[in-house]
Amino acid sequence: MNTTAPIHGVIAILRGVTPDEVVALGHALCDAGVTTLEVPLNSPQPFESLRRLHQALGGRARLGAGTVMSPDDVDHAAEAGATLMLSPHFDAAVVRRTVARGLCSMPGVATPSEG
User: b/e for 82-101, b at 16 or more Cβ within 10 A?
Assistant: First the structure.
């Protein structure tokens, strides 16, 4: 899978999924055509879930880490196989680290609740 191509369609957010559940869910989503998967970092053992998805799905899916709050989060997620870093806010240090690693940064900067 081309991890630098634009994202189209659905990003499946695997919130609260454990490492023991994530691979079966990842296969089911990919089989259904959903190939961009996000593991929020506030899920149980998120880096282990990302590692397992990366190993099991190989190039079938683009993996993202959600709720990325720090440059260290970027590093840990990237080492686990994530190529998308999704943040609930804009943090220049997170964006810089993501870009420096050649990854895609998706900061949340405009939500419907913002006035």
Answer: bbbbbbeeebeebbebbeeb
Instruction: State the pTM of this model.
Output: 0.89
Q: Work out the mean pLDDT of the chain and round it to a whole number.
A: 91
Instruction: Please report where in the chains the tokens 């998967």 appear, as a residue.
Output: 37
| Residue 72 CB neighbour total at 10 angstroms | 12
Half-sphere exposure of 81 (CA within 13 A, CB side): 23
Do residues 62 and 37 touch, judged by C-beta distance below 8 A?
Answer: yes
The answer to whether the beta carbons of residues 39 and 9 sit under 8 Å apart is no
Predicted confidence (pLDDT) per residue in 60-102, tens digit: 999 999 999 999 999 999 999 999 999 999 999 999 999 999 9
Identify which of 87, 92, 83 has the alpha carbon closest to the alpha carbon of residue 68: 87
CA gap 27, 42 in Å, rounded = 22
